[in-house]
Amino acid sequence: MKKFKWIITVTGGLLLLFVVLTLFNTFTVDSKQPSPDSTTIKINKQAAVSRFSKAITFQTISYKDRSKFDLETFQLFIDYLKESYPAVHSNLELEKVNDYALIYKWKGTNPSKKPIGLTAHYDVVPVIEGTEDNWQQKPFSGNVVEGNIWGRGTLDDKIGVIGILEATEYLINNGYSPSRDVYLMFGHDEEIGGLEGASAIVDTLKERGVTFAFVLDEGGAIVENMVPGVKKPVGVVGISEKGSATAELTIKGSGGHSSQPKDETNIGRLSAAIAKLEDRQFDADLKGPGEDLFEFVAPEMSFGMKYVFANKVIFEPIIEKILLQKPASAALIRTTIAPTIFNAGEQYNALPEEATAVINFRLMPGETLKGVKKFIRNTIDDNAIQITIEGIEASGVSETNNWQFKSIQQAARNVYENAVIAPYLMFAGSDAKHYDAISENTYRFSPVQITAEDLKRMHGTDEHISEENYINAIKFYAEVMKEANRK
Ligand SMILES: [Zn+2]
After folding, report:
1. Catalytic residue among 157, 190, 191, 436
2. 123 is catalytic
3. pTM attached to this predicted model
4. 3-state DSSP helix/strand/coil % of the chain, to nearest 5
5. CA 311 to ligand 1 centroid distance, Å
């Protein structure tokens, strides 16, 4: 009896200690959001909107086939920038790379400080043929209707180019000069990989030995209801990009008539290989940018979620299980496997001599193409299947505990006072990856507050942005230049 009582006392004591400790953790998580220093920037809305509206009318479309580029229009767009932003063009040096990629250099007063770079792209994706009439406003009209500016590029990414130029023009006209060199870099082929634009800009600057304290590109936006348990809008700043690898699996062998098949056919074996991959999956691990995201949003969560995330060490297996339930959050914590093409067979009564499958993998930072190939080989355990793999490695991971990230966070808070600004992992590719080669840190953030619906319109129908968002984007770019030059 005595022994039993003793066990109860100890267990009860441990439980109490557990509760006290975990509650302590929960109540002592400090917010990672700086208090806003409300922006005082005043933009002449009408003039700024009309310049943006006109910028949309230039059909600077990127095609996979470069010969289809209408380069005259690209030149007209460059001319338009010159006539619209006179202060920028008389105070900054402009250099063209491959004729259409633009580098503007704004000389700082303190040459011992490292430069910063703001980048965006002015090419846009084509409007899919046959969908033009589905648009509420013509895709290259730049129409302004009931507080919204319409057209291809309003979100992706002329808002970046025009927003940055508007901000710079404003700062110059208000007597501001930066302490660091500020580079504005605009690519003209981001939508097809950025090789002649961003990548060539990087090569040019690399040769000159220019390295940046940070480069800021388009990326995550401010969205409501994105993170469970957080009521405030959350603005996510990409600190890394997943890699993308395409593997082709091929099996060749004798075909034959379907009336007398062998026990193992090419289709059967290849299907089994894919099933094994889906069955096994890559390990999920809440670390890196995914973990950073939750560290930044946890303090802003409702009690239940905050309790779980504040005690991540204990609840990690549960958190991972929850995140794995939805594809969007699963992609945050593991390398994903997506079979996208399967080719085999032509005739109902003939066994195909060959079967091929294409699988797209999105790689977590730290994973490599080589590692993925090894994973496939070990998992499928079938040496008759050939594997080839190609693609882009995951990018590096930028810091969050430095003045660079804090400048971006502060600038965003100065404009969007109510938003929680947090780092995250980008699934989509952008020009930013090219800048890793010459920048200590690369961040990906689009300073607009939009909905999940708006995100779909980016490469689809009815792309538009509110005037308010556009003005806020200008304010953000001005704020970020000021914040970074204070450091
Ligand atoms: Zn873009």
Report:
1. 190
2. yes
3. 0.90
4. 45, 25, 35
5. 37
